[in-house]
Amino acid sequence: MARGSGPNAEAAFQNAIDAAMQQAIAAEVSAADWSRHGQTYLALLRRNGNGILRGWRELSSVSERHLSGRVFRSEVAVEVDGEALRERLHPKSQTASP
């Protein structure tokens, strides 16, 4: 489960999906590697995440009024293909045949 917020419902939902992907990536790499390369990993999966995010379900979506304006919040549950994620994060090295 992951949560996100934003200036509109779509931005809050996308922020929650990103948070879920961050959780999945952080579970597959070391803390030091996540600290150094976490945003790069996330950008990689945004560009080419086919097969990794199997599905999602929006658990809640709410709108709140604040002095600074309206804030939307979204909570999602996602299904991630762990094997596909590991392969994308740690591709097997290609060796050339003689």
Structure description:
This protein has helices spanning 9-26, 31-47, 82-89; strands at residues 2-6, 53-66, 69-80. It has a three-stranded antiparallel β-sheet. Residues 94-98 have low confidence and may be disordered. It has one domain. The termini are far apart. By secondary structure, it is of the alpha+beta class. 44% of the residues lie in helices and 32% in strands. The radius of gyration is 16 Å and the shape is elongated.
Radius of gyration in whole Å, from Cα? 16 Å
pLDDT below 50 for ≥5 consecutive residues: which ranges? Answer: 94-98
Tell me the structural class.
Answer: alpha+beta
**In terms of quaternary structure, what is this?**
single chain
Helix percent reads 40-55%
Total of domains: 1
Average residue-wise pLDDT: 89
Described by strand count, sense and barrel closure, the largest sheet is:
3 strands, antiparallel
Q: Between the first and last Cα atoms, what is the distance in angstroms?
A: 48 Å
Structure summary, number of beta strands:
3
Gist of the model:
This protein has 98 residues and is α+β, with helices and mostly antiparallel strands. It is built from 3 helices and 3 strands.
